[in-house]
Amino acid sequence: MDPLCFAFRLGVHLHQGFTFLHGSHLYIPPARYLRMPAPIRLRELIRTIRTARTQAEEREMIQKECAAIRSSFREEDNTYRCRNVAKLLYMHMLGYPAHFGQLECLKLIASQKFTDKRIGYLGAMLLLDERQDVHLLMTNCIKNDLNHSTQYVQGLALCTLGCMGSSEMCRDLAGEVEKLLKTSNSYLRKKAALCAVHVIRKVPELMEMFLPATKNLLNEKNHGVLHTSVVLLTEMCERSPDMLAHFRKNEKLVPQLVRILKNLIMSGYSPEHDVSGISDPFLQVRILRLLRILGRNDDDSSEAMNDILAQVATNTETSKNVGNAILYETVLTIMDIKSESGLRVLAINILGRFLLNNDKNIRYVALTSLLKTVQTDHNAVQRHRSTIVDCLKDLDVSIKRRAMELSFALVNGNNIRGMMKELLYFLDSCEPEFKADCASGIFLAAEKYAPSKRWHIDTIMRVLTTAGSYVRDDAVPNLIQLITNSMEMHAYTVQRLYKAIFGDYSQQSLVQVASWCIGEYGDLLVSGQCEEEEPIQVTEDEVLDILESILISNMSVSVTRGYALTAIMKLSTRFTCTVNRIKKVVSIYGSSIDVELQQRAVEYNALFKKYDHMRPALLERMPVMEKVTTNGPTEVVQTNGETEPAVLETKPPPGLQPTSQANDLLDLLGGNDTTPVIPTAPMSKPASAGGELLDLLGDLNLTGSPASAPTPAPQISQPPFLLDGLSSQPLFNDVAAGIPSITAYSKNGLKIDFTFERSNTNPSVTVITIQASNSTELDMTDFVFQAAVPKTFQLQLLSPSSSVIPAFNSGTITQVIKVLNPQKQQLRMRIKLTYNHKGSAMQDLAEVNNFPPQSWQ
């Protein structure tokens, strides 16, 4: 008799195995008749893992359970496969490896039970992705389930395809998704719309397949379908300019969206969609984003949505965060479309109210948004200047940084004194990580808007006194150049610097400037001829005591000691009673362990011993310095819309440049013509040179005269350096504040804005300030801006504020361009941009021909 039948007859059944008596012995059946014990449930597993007191104990529990699950998988146990996969997914979410369950997920998907399919699809979304070939095995199962008679099974298939479908799967199953998008079942339509978004992202060429299905989506009353439909339309508009134009013109999408948004605002209380008293804020935000895309650079669409945007901005409740989210999207939409000026002021006032909110996140968002709009709506943002300045005192460092950047963007010639007072106070009390950026911003603002040279010098000295260790490397030479060119301020400056470093050598930049000035103007310090403030009585020995203290101070770096030693040497020609003391100090440092200091001392000793007759001439006062720019002045000549650059000389050259050098310079903006460069400075040349001057313009004539008879360029009497000879009166004309700014370049997340000002002393000089911003998620590094103009102009580029453009529009690079236009011709410019982004070197050319007439007339 078979042992199994005999066991049933005896009725002995223990622990799912069979044990029975056979004669006088206990009989155990073969292993093929034994079954594994039932695995523990997911809830029990979670409870057990939570009892673990250490990480090692938890790992031990997980490893034990994984071993049991693997054994169950090998046994092909269909009964508990769903339970085991669910436990495996929980372990995966805890961070433990669960890849061995991938094929089990596919088996569950192929099952006919809904509970199995649900866990199988969830496992596929968590454990599989398009990089693994295993996921292709489920394509046929998904296709079958998309055509299933039960909507919930269809919904599972749509969710999985929309989550992890590869491009191959999307191509194979796009037809089924498009079919479900047209169904009358709202549950399936909303899931199909989201799945269509994923298909478009993976295979953009399939976008047109879904175009017919989008026609009736916005007529649906179900908010879930409306929401997903707006997401789908947004994706299509963002990815295809043709689709964007189609929805603007043919589908008349803007009126439909305006109608839906108006119904949401005017509708009464609906408990199904109400969030903090506002009807479906999620749908409102999505519609506002789509309106922003449709209205960008389109007058008709912008005009159609102006009224509804004003209605949303005025009727939305601001006491709850939900209302603030809608208002923020409204502000972004107003600023991005071609909206009316009154509407833009309303948007900026909303941001101003955000600054008064107690929530730090809302204040940060407001500051970031104002920073983006300050160049286009400067006057409207200026009204909130006091609130912005108050944010400098905020305890949150991110808010403090945004407020600092926005404060510098608000500085102009009218408020320079007040804003600098607040920013200097901020510099005194801010954290060390802010000091470098704040000092750099103050330097740039003071250089651009200083009302007087004395104020400029005082401001820079205040910065060096407060944050001398944090300033940029060029701060010292820039201040020295400013002091040198302010001849009437020499006595006042050297006296202020002497008092500033007396007994305190901690700020090395300040000590370097003071050492240079004392060496240069020490005779004025000793004579006490200062008229600007009460003079101090200083002897020659006291001055030398200060410089010798700098030389032996532990805080002095090598560069500072070099400044001090050179200053002592210069004083040998300015002082009369202390020359022997100076010789002794210089000779001591001839054996210094600092090689740089030793070399200076040896050379100075040689001056005293061998070339003493030349010493007064070699150490005489420095002449007025000219500020050298890193990007040299350039010009552009144009030929049928193509531009060719040429470099302007800062001094009139004796003759024509060599052809090879000129051709190298032509590569500046990518020109491929090998025509030699003709300098614009006046020079003697034969009459036949008119043919060479056939200005590389071809048929394009910028002078108004026939191209066949070009008018000779007039002799320009202005000095080549554009601001040479300017007096100390204010540099810019306040009337020029009415010149509108322009966007010169906007591509790949990089945006270049131009703002304009006119010189008071020379109406032919236009000062253009560029501001480069970066809206991508990564910084742009090694940024270089180059510009060129037609050869009837002269152009000069000053140094940029930085070479890194921060991501997310969190900061800007500023650079000043000065253009001399003596003939008042229409301004044209070609720009070249080079930078590194996402590990790649980027380069682009662009022409700027839309300069406002006020900037050149």
Automatic annotation (TrEMBL):
Keyword Cytoplasm: yes
GO molecular function: GTP-dependent protein binding; kinesin binding; small GTPase binding
Domain of life: Eukaryota
SMART domains from the UniProt entry: Alpha_adaptinC2
SUPFAM superfamilies xref list: ARM repeat (SSF48371), Clathrin adaptor appendage domain (SSF49348)
GO terms, biological process: endosome to melanosome transport; Golgi to lysosome transport; intracellular protein transport; positive regulation of natural killer cell degranulation
Region (Disordered): 635-657
Membrane topology term: Peripheral membrane protein
Pfam families in UniProt: Adaptin_N (PF01602), Alpha_adaptinC2 (PF02883)
Major place of residence: cytoplasm
GO cellular component, one term: AP-1 adaptor complex
The family this protein is said to belong to: Belongs to the adaptor complexes large subunit family.
Function text: Subunit of clathrin-associated adaptor protein complex 1 that plays a role in protein sorting in the late-Golgi/trans-Golgi network (TGN) and/or endosomes. The AP complexes mediate both the recruitment of clathrin to membranes and the recognition of sorting signals within the cytosolic tails of transmembrane cargo molecules.
Name of the molecule in the record: AP-1 complex subunit gamma
GN (gene name): AP1G1
